[in-house]
Design brief:
alpha/beta; 10 strands; four-stranded mixed β-sheet
Amino acid sequence: MANLNVYIDTNTTLSIKHGNLILDDISKLKESVSLPLELLSSVVIDSYSSVVTKQVLVSLAENNVLLVLCDNAHLPTSILLPFQTHSTASLHIRKQIKVRQKKLGLLWQEIIKAKIINSANHLRFKDKARYKILETLASKVLPDDKGNKEAIAAKEYFKALFGAKFNRQDDNATNIMLNYTYALLRAKCARVCAAKGLLPSLGIHHTSFLNSFNLADDFLEPFRAFVDVYVTSYLEACKGLDSKGSQEFILSPSDKKHLLRIFDHKVYMDGKYYLIDAAIEQSIGSYLQVILEKREHLSLPVLDERYVKSVVSNNG
């Protein structure tokens, strides 16, 4: 499976030759790099002077390689997705449209329970007593999350993780790193939705007509705790950055390269361990099987101690 994630932060010319993506440093200070398209999962471009040809765009799309473009704040702002790469995309979209609201409510219940349990596991591994509150909330999640246990759990979770004064809207190191890495996983979810012949804008619970990636946002939820573990571990390793941070904090190229390496880690799901790319594919693939009436429940990741130890070891 393609699992190579490429980050470009210098002025680079991208081209295609013999089925390979060629990266040429415009300044000629570095040697060219050749990467087989079949091994690529994503390419993140964070340089305004990089040059990309139409041939590159088409080749990446044909090979189901996600292209992410970053803005002047160095945050993902645009993604290129392949258009109907699946031979039965029309059938899948029809099935997706016809899913009954009751079924969608049950699927959302599964997703939110998994999200809260993963958050609780994160707190438990960090010896935070509030994990018990989250476990209780997870057991009380209703179809379509009536009662909004997700929001209650999130408030308790971030308070326990970062302190009572922490606010997810602040422009600090923690939030910037979380948002950057969430955005990368969201783009991966959108890529898989398109590859499976699903309509990314047609979500299970997220339904905004202004959002082209509602379904991707649905499946991002149970993976958020994995990002939280990765970012908090990295911040602890850096030591110079705290959750209050500076309002002028900007992710460095080394920060972004490190955050991209979250995709090198494996997560537990359905009795097996998968790289995060593969886990996202399995999870969204299970949704496709549900709407095709080939199974009843979703495959969702479980945050376990092995993942935490792997991340801490990597950041140490």
